[in-house]
Amino acid sequence: MYIRFRNKRYKLGDVAFHFFNTIILLFLVVVTIYPFLNTLAISFNDGLDSVRGGIYIWPRKFSLQNYRAVFISGTVVNAFFVSVARTVITVALNVFLTGMLAYCLSRKEYIFNKFITVMIVITMYFNAGLIPNFLLIKKLGLYGSFWVYVIPCLISGFNVIVVRTYISSIPESLVESARLDGAGDFKIFLRIIFPLCKPSLAVIAMFVAIFQWNNWFDTYLYCSSKQSLSTLSYELQKLLASSFSQSQSTQAVTSGLGAELASGMVTPIAMQAAITIVAMVPIICVYPFVQRYFVTGLNVGGVKE
Questions:
Q1: Which stretches of the chain are DSSP H helices?
Q2: Side-chain half-sphere of 251: how many Cα atoms within 13 Å?
Q3: Helix 268-302 and helix 157-168: axis angle, to 10°?
Q4: H or E element: which one contains 3?
Q5: Is 128 buried (19+), middle (13-18) or exposed (0-12) by CB count in 10 A?
Q6: Most buried residue among 76, 194, 289, 297 by CB atoms closer than 10 A?
Q7: Domain segments of the chain: what residues?
Q8: From residue 87, how far is each of 73, 153, 213, 216, 236 by CA, in Å?
Q9: Please, are residues 230 and 82 in contact by the beta-carbon 8 Å criterion?
Q10: What global pTM score does this model have?
Q11: Class of 66-305 per CATH?
């Protein structure tokens, strides 16, 4: 059976499929976006009013008090800059070092490329565990240091394999031409390989950035005794894991924020929503700039014919 629409004929089965497919996708969009809109509404709602509940996607009593409490606190502001620093530094070093290692492993003339590749793959399946990692961090002198956020995350086995596969798809004639012109391996990597690997490197940069920005467990393990090295995700985790009563939590959260905030205008649920939004905004702003690289980077870097 066919249905005519705008002088075109469509099969009834195709129309039904697209209709139900659209309904299901709209439902998934609503389910996905609603928690974000709800958190955003609570963050802009009056703190005391938020305790009553019943807030959905629009603030009942609009207020910026929650964000004032977030940014007036030196603890949260410092944690924000620590999170930015660890994310930017780790992403820059990880992308560069991963690209260099992947380029070395993609060279057929390098006799140890298969052996090192196997060793890297093994690390993707086996892990020493939490206690050996903790002891290693202490022996390396990284405990309680900012570099404990950076050095352990400089190389990822999965990222190396993805970039190496991508580099293998680049025509070898480009490298040979550069060698004939007198270019060395480092110059070939910087001038030819690195620019051509932008899609794949953008993908791993996004993966590393999201992991670094959201990770709080390493702060809990290695830097929990140093407030100056606390991250935004760890501050949020502490707030969410607070076991105090409502009044005790309000006092704990608002302590040191000034008389106006400590008067009870800020509540834990409102602060949780505000810090969550502050933690989400940087990733949301960065993602559109690298999203176009995702399909190309993963397809070419993850599939090798």
A1: 12-43, 47-50, 65-72, 74-106, 113-125, 130-139, 157-168, 172-180, 185-188, 194-196, 198-214, 217-222, 232-240, 246-254, 259-262, 268-302
A2: 5
A3: 40
A4: strand 2-5
A5: exposed
A6: 297
A7: 66-305
A8: 22, 10, 6, 12, 17
A9: yes
A10: 0.74
A11: mainly alpha
For residues 59 and 42, what is the distance between their CA atoms, to the nearest angstrom?
Answer: 6
Whether 204 contacts 95, CB under 8 Å: yes
What does the pLDDT look like over 74-120, one tens digit per residue?
A: 788 888 899 999 999 999 999 999 999 998 888 888 888 888 888 88
- Spell out the residues 6+ positions from residue 12 whose beta carbon is closer than 8 angstroms to its own: 1, 2, 3
For residue 55, give the amino acid letter: I
Partners of 2 in beta bridges:
11
Strand partners, 202: none
Per the DSSP assignment, residues forming a β-bridge with 11 are 2
pLDDT at 90: 94
Select from 235, 219, 201 the least CA-distant residue to 137: 219
Alpha-carbon span 270 to 43, nearest angstrom: 5
Phi, psi of 223 (to 5 degrees): -130, 20
Contact 168, 106 (CB under 8 A): yes
